[in-house]
Amino acid sequence: MEKEKSCGAIIYNDNNEVLIVKHNAGHWDFPKGHMEEGEDEYQTALREVKEETNLDIELIKEYRYEIHYSPKENVDKTVVFFLAKNKSNSLVKQDAEISNIGWFEYKEAVDVLTYDIAKELLNKSYSDLGKVNR
């Protein structure tokens, strides 16, 4: 079985809105992408977020979420997300991969996200955000 690994971030702004991207394939999700040789999970998450959104973020490394799924036959994919805070106001989508991008309030984000696993991550990260903001 082939193994793939991607990393990304669940990013919140100062208003506790979450960033969601619509991939050109049509699904709404959090920014993420494949690890490159020599990168660790943090470096991949920071690079992918910057490439897809142009944002500078702060990863909250204590809050790491890992999911597994099979995107195609004989492929086992692991995706690691970190809770993150936005540190810039330079939101620009990467046209090559992203068709839409935006900040969403929690309840709206639940409706916008395509996959149930992403909604579960949103719930967990939103709960953890409350711990960070205390």
User: What is the CATH-assigned architecture?
Assistant: Alpha-Beta Complex
Cα Rg:
14 Å
CATH class categorisation: Alpha Beta
Total domain units = 1
Question: Which stretches are poorly predicted, pLDDT < 50 over at least 5 residues?
Answer: none
Please give the share of residues in helix.
Answer: 25-40%
Total of helices: 3
Strand order of the largest sheet: 4-1-6-5
CATH topology: Nucleoside Triphosphate Pyrophosphohydrolase
Oligomer: single chain
Instruction: Tell me what portion of residues adopts beta-strand conformation.
Output: 35-45%
- The end-to-end span amounts to 43 Å
Give the CA-based shape.
globular
What structural class do you assign from the helix and strand content?
alpha+beta
The total strand number stands at 7
The largest β sheet comes out as:
4 strands, mixed
Q: What is the chain-wise order of helices and strands? A: EEEEHEEEHH
CATH superfamily: Nucleoside Triphosphate Pyrophosphohydrolase
Mean pLDDT across the residues is 95
Structural write-up:
It is a single chain. The chain contains three helices and seven strands. The chain is of the alpha+beta class and 134 residues long. The strands form two sheets. The protein has a four-stranded mixed sheet with strand order 4-1-6-5. The longest helix is centred in the last third of the chain and has 17 residues. The N and C termini lie far apart (43 Å). The model has no long low-confidence stretch (mean pLDDT 95).
